[in-house]
Amino acid sequence: MLTRWFNRNVRGIGFLGSILRWVVLLIFLIYFVIPMIWLLIAPSKDTSQFSSLNSLAFGSWAQYITAWKNVFSYQNGEVFLWFRNSFFYVLSSLLVSLAIGLPAGYALAILRFPGRSLMLWLTLITMLLPASALVLPLFMELNLVHLVNTPWAVILPACFFPFGVYLTYIYYSSSLPSELLDAARVDGASEFDVFINIALPLAKPLLGLLAFICFNANWNNYFGPYVLLNDDKLFTLPVGIQTVLGSTSALQPGFNPTPGAIHFGYAEAAVAGLVMIVPVVIIFLLSQRYVVSGAFTGSVKG
Amino acid sequence: MANLSMRVEDQSTKKVRHSSSRRYWNRRTNVAYLFLLPYILFMLAFGLGPGIYALIISFADYSSGLPRYFAAGIKNYLAVFKDSRFAFTFTNIGKFLLISVPVGIALVVLLALLLHMRPGRVASTLRTLFFIPGAAAGPAVVLLVIFMLTPQVSPFGFLLKLMGFNAFNDLITPGSLAFIFLIMGFFVGAGMWIAIQYGALEGISPEVMEAATMDGCNEWQKALYIKLPLIRPYIIYQFILIFAGNVQLFVEPQLLSNQTYIHANVPLVWSPNQLAYSFAFDLGNFGAAAALALIMLIIGLGASYLMVRWTGFFKIEN
User: How far apart are the C-alpha atoms of A272 and A201, rounded to whole Å?
Assistant: First the structure.
């Protein structure tokens, strides 16, 4: 019993080291988790309780349910539609961006060809371009081909994912054993076979990483869809929620409630926040299974 | 020791690779372009193309409302430099970079290394909990900013009061803003980078770690002398992105300055990127906005250029 405890906690880290490790981890656990717990509890309070109750106290279930109902009954459940839109846009661009990004990152890491360094720099430059510089040109470009205010306006630009290409490049160039590729080539495999049969199966952890990063970035993207869509039936979740909050919310300065309309207070804003967070957390948990599987375990014996 | 023998091995394989790569030259070159083709097309359409158009806009004259291309010369750039807020915003962002880049990277790497000392269920639970704030956006972040930073209603209230902050505006002062933005940004952004660095640590070959254990390394020595050097490319990548991203800081100052209902004494324009938006949407000067955006790009690129040159990041290593 004691030896098991020792092995698990102290061995190789030291007694003092263990304490230090846990102190640091717990401090950051508090920093990251307390605000999220607060957010989870927030819909249970009415506006006055936000200041009268203890910050982490629970208000009431009735209020909790009301807040959720208020959000989901807005315009006959338009939130569901936005949720579905967001999911569809994000998933399509995720699949396409992986399909074009993985071969590109692999080629940059493994193959030698004129222009390789140029491509790496261009990838870096386009990745670092401020969104504020891109919005107007993107709008004009998509307007030119009549794609503004269609799902394509959101999906297509998101398929370009230089961050992922770069991460793929680092992943393959820092950890794909070249012996493995050479062995396959000597056996007569074409470059295409090498990629499909060797490089791709080894990219499982990378795929997990890229999937949640890409999903998260596009799921939370507000400014692009806000500029490129104006039909509320096409809205993404962030854009839709922001318009609701903007038109009815206590979070908006100078707000005058329309008589009879649903009042969106802090509790509803918290619900909106939670609705946004849940899918990302699910994707993260799913993708983490892939990330932690020891990519190159046993592929090459040194 | 293990490290040394690895390196020797690497060199021997490099020679083999060199002779074989010449034989495959043509075929492999064509394959490379084929692999890159779809990516290049998307890059032209949604990265490089719009970027070049932004460059053109930065030389366009918007004074009549409609763009007159190349009519402005470098006037837009001069307008940016002459704006009274230019020096203010760039001093702010300079201070912010000075603390946020080293602190942000050091803490992320530290947390990833600490978690990776004991991979398993606890580590993966903590990693998930660290990541969850990264999913928060929009309305959730606004709420959290108000209620975490107001000592009377915050769960951290006792801590804030202990440090002498009794009201929101004690905490939010011109001098503290850079720290506040760091705390906000790290809360949302760190989890993703911890997951990336942790993934990099998982990618280290088990043979290397076994060899280290055989040589009598404890976990701290492994972290410092083996794991840290091996995840170097990922740390460089994080530096490049964090630096350029932080030059373009927008969301955090915007959230605080926008909230008139909490009467924050935060200037409306604190960061260069806010200044760019102000040029575009307050003044209708899209040319100056584009010019400023490109200036921010050049600063980020300058830093990454130095980093890439200094570390030889683009070389094919193995």
Answer: 38
Length of chain B: 318
What tokens appear for A53 in the block?
A: 């109750």
How many residues are given for chain A? Answer: 302
Identify the pLDDT of residue A71.
87
SS3 A265: coil
**CATH 1.10.3720.10 is right for the domain spanning A78-291:** yes
Q: What are the structural domains, with CATH classification, of chain B?
A: 58-311 (1.10.3720.10)
A129–chain B Cβ distance below 8 A for any pair: yes
Q: pTM score, two decimals? A: 0.87
> pLDDT by residue (tens digit) across A68-88?
998 888 878 889 999 999 999
The whole-number average pLDDT for the span B86-112 is 97
Residues 26-55 of A with CB under 8 A from B: 28-29, 31-39, 42, 50-51, 55
Contact assignment for A141 to B244 by CB distance below 8 Å: no
Asked whether the CA dihedral A135, A140, A145, A146 is positive or negative, the reply is: positive
Query: For residue B187, which residues of chain A lie inside 8 Å, CB to CB?
Result: 31-32, 35
Residue A193 touches chain B, beta carbons under 8 Å: no
Are B48 and A136 in contact (CB < 8 Å)? Answer: no
Q: How far apart are CA A283 and CA A289, in angstroms?
A: 10
Residues 224-283 of B with CB under 8 A from A: 233-234, 237, 240-241, 244, 248, 250, 258-261, 273, 276-277, 280
